Amino acid sequence: METITIKDIAKALGLSTSTVSRALRNSYEINPETKKLVMEYAERMNYRPNPIALSLRDSKSKSIGVIIPEIANHFFSQLINGIESIAYNLGYHVVIFQSHESYEREVANTNYLVSRKVDGLLISLSSLTTNLFHFQDLMERGLPIVFLDRVPNAIETHKVVVDNFAGSYEATEHLIKSGRKRIAHLTSPIYLSITTERLAGYKQALEDYGLPFDESYVKYCYHGGKVATENEAAVQEMLEMPEPPDAIFTASDRLTTGCMSVLQKKNIKIPQQIAIVGFTNISVAELLNPPLTAVVQPAMEMGQQAVELLIRLIEHPQKTDVFETRSLKTSLIIRESSVGKAEAL
Length: 345
What we know:
Protein name: Transcriptional regulator, LacI family
Number of domains: 3
CATH topology of the largest domain: Rossmann fold
Helix content: 40-55%
Order of helices and strands: HHHHEHEHEHEEHEHEHEHEEHEEH
CATH superfamily of the largest domain: Response regulator
Distance between the termini: 64 Å
Number of strands: 12
GO molecular function, one term: DNA-binding transcription factor activity
Organism: Dyadobacter psychrophilus
Domain HTH lacI-type: 4-58
Pfam families: LacI, Peripla_BP_1
């Protein structure tokens, strides 16, 4: 099959080559109907931009760097799928690095990507990142950066998140309505945006339903669930309390599976003795024993929206004077791990 060109698309659609070129670059100068027409035809004909030609013309690498905590986490793998689905069609290559929840690796990854002259960065902060200088310095030098999921409050740029407060509130409310009175919260380091927002939703639900907030029922895992011994110690501390929890709301994939593993090793029945709700996107949630009630995030859509915002910064930097924080809705999928006390007996 011969490679289709911009000229071929223009001729087939009766448009100028410059119009087709701008439409494929998602230019604000082209109306949405024309963009849709061009993009659909290009996809149908398997059009792919020539990255070498684009780089020579624009003095850009046509590549985007992505740094996430861990690809094995199903949420982040879905996020990457969303990023690549948009970037590829717009002629960008995606270079992916993992921080493994390490600040030092995050800095090293960032420096390497910049040395390879990526056009911009998509970042989800590691659980140990408290110093943001490496990002602030790059942005001051003009490198476009967009944050997603775990975002810094101190940096002004585009950000894509979910409504962590609402998702956490709904999860806690569900546990309260199922008859639970001592609801613990297993979460990440307090300085992460997702931690503070999910903690706030949890506390608000308790307050609204007349249950006291007890700080001792909140356990922070400073490696974000990556270190199994840390997870086990946190759950063990909960179980050794004078009044152990009758429900645990967990704030991430690894924390959820780690918590369930500890409870099962100790022969604690879920949900009869302790109900579980996770903030998780694991694809096998319904296959766990018991099937897991979960707050699910629209991870793929988050990735798509984040890369669209980044490419807009890359291609139209002069047009950016107002930055967006997009907050997407979560959904609560109720399964057997959190059924009411009466049903569980």
